[in-house]
Every structure is written in structure tokens, then in C-alpha cells.
Amino acid sequence: MTTVGLAGRNPEAAWEACRTGAWDSPTAGICEEYVQANLVVLPWAEAFDFLRFCGRNPKPCPLIEVTDPGDPEPRLTAAGADLRTDLPRYRVYRGGELAEERQDVRDLWREDSVAFLIGCSFSFEHALLSAGVPLRHIEEGTNVPMYRTNVACTPAGEFSGPLVVSMRPIPAELVPLATTVTARVPQVHGAPVHIGAPEALGIGDLEDPDYGEPLEVREGELPVFWACGVTPQAVAVEAAPEVMITHSPGHMFVTRMTHEELLTR
Amino acid sequence: MTTVGLAGRNPEAAWEACRTGAWDSPTAGICEEYVQANLVVLPWAEAFDFLRFCGRNPKPCPLIEVTDPGDPEPRLTAAGADLRTDLPRYRVYRGGELAEERQDVRDLWREDSVAFLIGCSFSFEHALLSAGVPLRHIEEGTNVPMYRTNVACTPAGEFSGPLVVSMRPIPAELVPLATTVTARVPQVHGAPVHIGAPEALGIGDLEDPDYGEPLEVREGELPVFWACGVTPQAVAVEAAPEVMITHSPGHMFVTRMTHEELLTR
Q1: Structure confidence by residue, pLDDT tens digits, B218-228
Q2: Quick check: A180 contacting B, CB < 8 Å?
Q3: From B109's CA, which of A220, B72, B195, B231 has a CA 20 to 30 Å away?
Q4: Which stretch of A177-181, A212-216, A229-233, A255-259 has the lowest confidence by average pLDDT?
Q5: A41 - beta bridge partners?
Q6: By CB neighbour count within 10 A (0-12 exposed, 13-18 middle, 19+ buried), where does B132 fall?
Q7: Each residue of B104-123: b (16+ CB within 10 Å) or e?
């Protein structure tokens, strides 16, 4: 099955293709109408502090759903799905180290496993594009550049670490619009955390991002920084829980919720 | 000490007056500049589901802070305070039944106690009054009327129950303004859940509220309904946890956070 095979399809088609192994690729460009989510699965004992961490840092950690302990079905936003099989690819961390990558985590699921579905940038960029703000990394088909900053997240229990931001070059005359549009959607990152001066965030070289690929900032443009959904996963890895399951980068979970539903809820 | 004694004072003065027993009265009208919060204290085992419940129902359950297990100090929004002594009056529920009312809960505090500070209507009404929306219950010095509705909250674990709403009569021409102003502050209840037709919420008689006191809706006014912070406490009582500590009605906790800080965060 190619990307084309899931473009414009509904979430059930994506879940089934992942479950049967027919789909083992990144999820950008599939089921475009629906919200995709980052996945973090933790044992119940660690889930409470991680949930508090997300609540204390809502800009980088926009929670879409937190499942009932032991239940692999996200009943609120993806009824009928099984989080143990319905993503194309998973990563398993043990003690904070990447232990393996696989397509099915049924045998790792515990009675006390709690899944966190965390908003990803697709919904956020949907709002910007709808407002007429151009996004260069999408035009060029690259990953957005992301940077670890000198801004500390508010810790909760074992979970602490720096805020990670994504950068998008925005024409100066559109910066107010980009700010206003994203301020209206606190459910996915909200307003920028910084505009224009990367050094104030401790970013030494824009051309050397910590994640993703560099992106040119042209004359007449400002670099605009938003809190990034990579933050909670990076923080969870650093807390080194005994076992943690996540999606593989780019291989996200497709929910039943449309972008419009998320942006207006 | 009279109300006048704490009007315009800072939070430390209120904490000390509560701790020493000098203040044993409702907190309306004291430390006016600062955000007051509803209190719910649960053992860690129940706290995770209650936190998920609040996250799933953000309009009635605006979380201001969730403390570290066992720590009676709300370090983020009221550093230096002690939640075991610094409220004027507490209620203790056992198995969902009101067991006692007291001024100090030090001997009930456990190593796994988790405190939830939940936004109260004062901050919310501050935003409305600042925008020029008149509030009759404040003019008349009564409690706002509150109603249990036929709208179910999204449950989480043992926690479930109906949405409780507060009603404020608003002149029809100011309803758009009241809606816009409160939509901008999702951190305290957000936009109205309903405008104009109480029967759609299952409210039979506006003059017979479930909590608070009735309030006249005059000609040219509409009844406007907002999600109410009484909801999470009512839901927690119905879940009948082994032990739960709350503030006594009207006897709230004063944080260090100003209304402006809350409304702009």
C-alpha cells in the first residue's frame, strides 16, 4: 500500500492497514481530515506525575486523551481502535534507553498501562494554513526545525527538562496574524513562546537544529518559535521509566476527531 | 478580625489569620486582588482518575494547581502556604458522607495526599465586570444560583456525574460581549454552555436552584449558563472515596496569583 492508498481515507482504514502490517510508513499526508497524535504509554505508577507534568506545561503538551488504565482503546477520540496494534511503528524504551522498534506492542501491554495521546503539529499548521500563513517546511517537504531551549518546563515528580520549540519563518507582515490565529487554539500549542530573537532562548545557531532539518529565514521574515510536542516525549525519556512505549518519529496515531472538531472544542 | 481586616491585604496575611484561628469566616471580599481556589484533597490512588476527570471536563473543572503527593505546599501558585491550616474552614467526607467540619486538617494529611486547587467564580466574574457586564448577584450580595443539569460530564474511572451550571441574567444586548469575554478565558470556565433556554438543560424551574439563591431574570435579559466549579466537588462526593477533604462552602483558599496573572496565563 502506498501513501496514496490512505490519502483521503477514514481512520478505520488506517487502523486496519497498520494492524495487518499493510502500512509501515510515516503518517504525514494520510487521512488528512483527521487529527493525528503522538503516543506515550507509561505504567500507572508513573502516569500520575506525567499527567501533572502535561497539565503544568500545556503549551508543549496538548493532551488529546488519557486512556483508562489497562484499556488500549481511546474511547473518547478513537472508539474502536486498539493502541497496541493500530500505529504503523512503535519504539520501546527501557530505563530511558531505546530498546527496540516494532509494529505491535500487544505482549508489552500491562493491566496498568496508561496511554497519552498528545497533539501534533498537523492540527496547528492546519489553522495557520487556513488563515493564509505560508509554511516553508511544508512547501519544501522537510521536517520543521526544532531546538532545545534554555527555558525549563515546570517539573512534576520525576519529570523535568527543557522546553523544545519548533521554528517557522514568517513574513514580518504576517506575524501578527500567525500569533492571533494560534493564540486562539490553546488546545494545540497556542500563541508563539518567542518571536525574532533565538539567542534569548539560548539557541546559538538556527542552522543547527536539535531535531528536524534547518530552514532558511529570508529577508523580511522573522523566526517565530512555538512550544513543540517533542517536549513531553523528551522529558519522559530523561525520567528513565522502567518501560515506556511511544510511536516512532513520524509514525503517528490517527484519531476519529477532525481538525475542525479539535480547533473548536 | 472582621472582613475589613483582610480586605486589600496580601495572601500571607490571610494564611496567618486562618492558621492562628483569627479568621473563621467566608473569604468573599478579602485579598481582592488574588485568585481564590476551591480545594479537593484525595489519596494518591484516587487522584489519578480525578485528575483525568478534570482534564476531560475542563469547563467545569479549571485546575489551578495539583500538588506533589504528600506536600501540603502549593509551590507553583502559593509558595509558603500550608494547605492543612491556611484555609478558614474544611469539610471532611468519609465514604461520600459529610463527617465533620473543622479548622485544621494536619492530623488527616497523609504521605500520599494530593491537593487539587480548582478555579472559583471570582476570577471569572472579575473578567466580566472589567468588561462592563453587570452581575446582579454581586449587586444584591447573594450567592449565584446553580443547577444540576441533564448534561453528563465525561466520566473517568469512578468519577462521573452531571454538569452543574451557574446562571447569571444578562441584558440581551450584552450577551455577545459576555460570551466573547469569557470565551477568551478558558482557564476559568470559558464561554457559556447555554444561553436562553433552561429547559434544554433539564432545568424545570429557574426559581428553584440546587445550590445558591434564586435570581430574577428581568424583561430584556437572557439567562446565561456557565459551567460551574461546584461540579468536580459534587462528582467527587458521589464517587464516595474513603476520605476526602474540601474547603467549606465560601471558605476558600487564597493563592499568590493575581486575577491578571490567571487571566493572561
Answers
A1: 999 999 999 99
A2: no
A3: B231
A4: A229-233
A5: A115, A245
A6: exposed
A7: bbeeebeeebbbbbbbbbbb
B180 touches chain A (CB under 8 A): no
Q: Which among B47, B56, B156 is the nearest to A48, CB-wise? A: B47
State ipTM: 0.78
Residue from A52, A185, A187, A188 to probe the interface with B (highest B Cβ count within 10 Å):
A52
* A112 at interface of B, judged by CB pairs closer than 8 A: no
Best B42, B51, B187 member to test A by mutation, with max A CBs in 10 Å, is: B51
CATH of A124-232, one of 3.30.2040.10, 3.90.79.10, 3.40.50.300, 3.40.109.10: 3.30.2040.10
Using one digit for the tens of pLDDT, what is the confidence trace for B108-120? 999 999 999 998 8
B68 interfaces chain A, CB cutoff of 8 Å: yes
Of the partner residues B48, B66, B76, the one whose CB lies closest to the CB of residue A44: B48
pLDDT digit string, tens, across residues B138-163: 898 888 899 999 999 999 999 999 99
* pLDDT for residue A260: 83
DSSP A136-196: HHHHHT-PPPEEEEEEEPPPBTTB--EEEEEEEEEEGGGHHHHHHHHHT-GGGT-S-SEES
Confidence of residue B4 (pLDDT cuts 50, 70, 90): low
Q: What fold is seen in the domain A3-121+239-264?
A: PSTPO5379-like (3.40.1640)
B51 part of contact set with chain A, CB < 8 Å:
yes
